[in-house]
Write a structure and sequence with these properties.
Helix content: 40-55%
Strand content: 5-15%
Largest sheet: 2 strands, antiparallel
Shape: elongated
């Protein structure tokens, strides 16, 4: 009796059951492909992340000085700066003192290792095109640079650029950028 019922259901709903089987098979295929694809990306990425000690997070520091920092800057440097940008331009040593204190405070409070990454934005002209670029100070512990061609910059007039940028703009090692 059950056999008859099953045969009757199959004969009446053959197309529906066939489509359901196809959907299940395709779903299994997609899941397997995505899982193995993600695993392949992770397997290729993890050695790079470990080798260059890539950061787990990043944050920007408040550019304004606290009241305590303003007092410190006034007492030790004789300046009345209200923010880090002005302090950076007026007195590098004083700027560095404020950042070092902030870094020490955060490392103590959060139980983490931090590295300050100073950068400067600039515009350059190259091949009659204007480009906005960001120059980073090289890291010592976190987000280490990985040089894939040539060698790390040795002189003040040398920089390293991203491989993609070099390929996109037809640049090679030794080219001059103004």
């Amino acid at each position: 009796m059950i056999d008859k019922h099953v045969r009757r259901s199959f004969s009446k709903k053959t197309l529906t059951l066939l489509l359901l089987g196809i959907v299940i098979a395709l779903s299994s295929f997609v899941y397997t492909a995505v899982f193995h694809g993600a695993q392949a990306v992770e397997d290729a990425t993890l050695p790079y992340l470990e080798r260059t000690n890539q950061e787990d997070f990043m944050f920007d520091i408040n550019p304004f000085l606290s009241d305590d920092e303003k007092t410190l800057v006034l007492d030790t440097c004789g300046l009345t700066s209200r923010d880090l940008d002005a302090l950076y331009l007026e007195d590098w040593s004083c700027f560095n003192t404020v950042l070092s204190q902030r870094k020490a405070f955060l490392e103590t409070q959060l139980d983490v290792s931090l590295e300050l990454r100073l950068f400067s934005d600039a515009h350059i002209e190259m091949n009659d095109e204007s480009h906005r670029v960001r120059f980073f100070k090289d890291a010592r512990a976190i987000n280490l640079s990985e040089i894939t061609d040539g060698q790390a910059p040795q002189n003040i007039d040398e920089i390293a650029i991203l491989k993609h940028y070099a390929l996109h703009h037809d640049l090679t090692i030794g080219d001059e950028i103004t």
